[in-house]
Amino acid sequence: MQLFFLDLGLFINRLAFAEQFRLNPLMSKSLLSAVRLTIILGYLGVANQAFTKAADLGYTDTPMLPSGKWHVHDPDRTKPPVVNSGATFSHGASAPSDAIVLFDGTDLSKWEGAKGAAPEWAIHEDYMEVKTNTGNIHTKDKFDDFQLHLEFAEPLKVEGDSQERGNSGVFLHGREGQGGYELQVLDCYNNPTYPDGQCGALYGQSPPLVNACKKPGQWQTYDIFFEAARWNENHELIRPASVTVIQNGLLIHHKQPLLGPTGHKTLASYSKELSDKAPIELQDHHTPVRYRNIWIRNITEDEKP
Ligand code: MG
Asked: What is the CATH number for 125?
């Protein structure tokens, strides 16, 4: 729309100058006023568009992270180097005997939408696909500490930039309406965005150690090892949640503590006691990201051999 105004203004401008000697003075004045108005609208629109785009690449009006070096979603934060993964890593990994299969490609019986509604995401071949604008889905079961395997693929048709390209997410402990910890899913193959929001980031907190993203349309793997936050009998935090993540065979987080449930443009914190167990949640961020082969193993600290 903004570019339309600018183009229209410049077009009328050219027309006005071409015609200025043939139009009567009153009409010329009106036409030139229209020219000026459309050009101003156009420039305002383009400026707004540029500002919006720049803002999408990061923010500096956000709180500082505890390191004191970077803002939340800082555009200048050190960018993880791109590392090409091997062709496959845990792609198609069969579930171990003690795993709970959350999705084997056939149905969504282990999942539900908001307030227990049946999920509307589509199933094709051996994968599920985000049905945009139908909302997040989460597991019916809740988990404490766990090992999670899943595979995802970004849309082959590349649309949008930065956070608008292939956005989804895996909430490690996704609490409906109470927040969770988002491991970002995004198409970050040649798609700059703020480092703590790129694919593999613990959103708004920690960028991945490397950018391990494959091309759009290619299947990628996450192998996730998660330890929930712990609280004492006085409801005080005694251990933050932490996570280790391998993407396509590359370590992207190693025992990385989480600052608290994920927020946008805010500093995460443990402002209240969180339950030990919570579902796994997949995000509908309005793009048709695909998931397949999802299984999970409970890790029971108390029963260590
Ligand atoms: Mg997301």
From this structure: 2.60.120.560
The rounded Å distance from CA 191 to ligand 1 centre is 15
- Domain-embedded: residue 234: yes
Residue 156 C-alpha to ligand 1 middle, in angstroms? Answer: 18
Distance (angstroms) between ligand 1 centre and the Cα of 81 equals 21
Is residue 224 within 8 Å of 251, Cβ to Cβ?
Answer: no
Please report the pLDDT score of residue 3 as a whole number: 40
CA–centroid distance, residue 186 to ligand 1 (Å): 7
Residue ranges with CB less than 5 Å from ion ligand 1: 167, 169, 283, 285
155, 217 Cβ separation under 8 angstroms: yes
Please give the distance, rounded to the nearest whole angstrom, from the Cα atom of residue 47 to the centre of ligand 1. 27
Q: Is residue 81 domain-resident?
A: no
Q: What is the pLDDT of residue 177?
A: 67
Domain that holds residue 15: 2-56
- Residue 179 pLDDT: 75
pLDDT for the residue 304: 72
In the reported structure, the alpha carbon of residue 180 is separated from the centroid of ligand 1 by a whole-number distance in angstroms of 12
Residue 125 lies in a domain: yes
Q: Which residues of the chain have pLDDT under 70?
A: 1-56, 177, 302
Q: Establish if 62 belongs to a structural domain.
A: no
Residues 250 and 160 both lie in one domain: yes
Distance CA 231, CA 229 (A): 7
* CA distance to 83, 102, 138, 214, 292, per residue, from 279 (Å): 31, 11, 6, 27, 17
107 and 52 belong to one structural domain: no
Q: Are residues 175 and 272 both part of a single domain? A: yes
H or E segment and range at residue 30: helix 25-56
Task: Enter the pTM of the model.
Answer: 0.83
